[in-house]
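$ ./design --mode recover --in tokens.txt
reading tokens...
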């Protein structure tokens, strides 16, 4: 599942999914990586800027796009989980603003989840002693997040069920690198990455 519904407020208000890195939008890069990594189903959740983001989405078998009213990440998460096909397969929740994520990084998360200890329902990558993304969860967690009541984020669930969460330590910066602020953009540019903001937005 791909969360692409944010408002990009810390970047002045822009669709982060449409930021181009080396000529391709973040959303296109992520969907391509998921496809290469063997994802059988991809659900993309849109909210803010839904019309603009949808215009760059190429239809693929097994892919669905869901629109959610602009709100909190918990609402986007619930909308995406609701759109998943029924089954017992685990779910990987990805964020569009992680430019270093590639098929290898996604496959490593999936492999680590497959080797998780008994009784574990969520795996969270950790880099430099801090949590990262994407997170992988069992269908038991999906059912809990879809239960009646206020929408919960995955973070809120894991804080209340720490014994069912495993921390997977990695030295891959892809899991902790995102484009959330002007400083994040500048760091990647300094590292030699070619970054273009969506058309019609102010330079940062």
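writing sequence...
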């Amino acid at each position: 599942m791909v969360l692409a519904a944010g408002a990009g407020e810390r970047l002045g208000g822009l669709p982060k999914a449409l930021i181009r890195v080396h000529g391709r939008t973040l959303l296109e890069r992520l969907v391509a990586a998921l496809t290469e990594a063997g994802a059988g189903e991809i659900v993309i959740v849109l909210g803010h800027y839904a019309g603009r983001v949808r215009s760059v989405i190429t239809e693929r078998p097994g892919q669905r796009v869901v629109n959610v009213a602009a709100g909190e990440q918990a609402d986007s998460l619930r909308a995406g989980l609701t759109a998943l096909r029924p089954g017992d397969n685990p779910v990987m929740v990805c964020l569009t603003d992680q430019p270093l994520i590639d098929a290898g990084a996604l496959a490593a998360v999936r492999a680590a989840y497959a080797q998780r200890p008994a009784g574990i329902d969520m795996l969270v990558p950790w880099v430099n002693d801090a949590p990262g993304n994407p997170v992988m969860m069992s269908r038991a967690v999906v059912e809990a997040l879809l239960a009646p009541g206020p929408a919960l984020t995955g973070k809120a669930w894991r804080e209340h069920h720490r014994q069912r969460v495993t921390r997977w330590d990695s030295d891959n910066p892809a899991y902790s690198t995102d484009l959330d602020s002007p400083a994040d953009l500048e760091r990647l540019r300094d590292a030699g990455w070619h970054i273009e903001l969506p058309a019609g937005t102010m330079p940062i």
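exit 0
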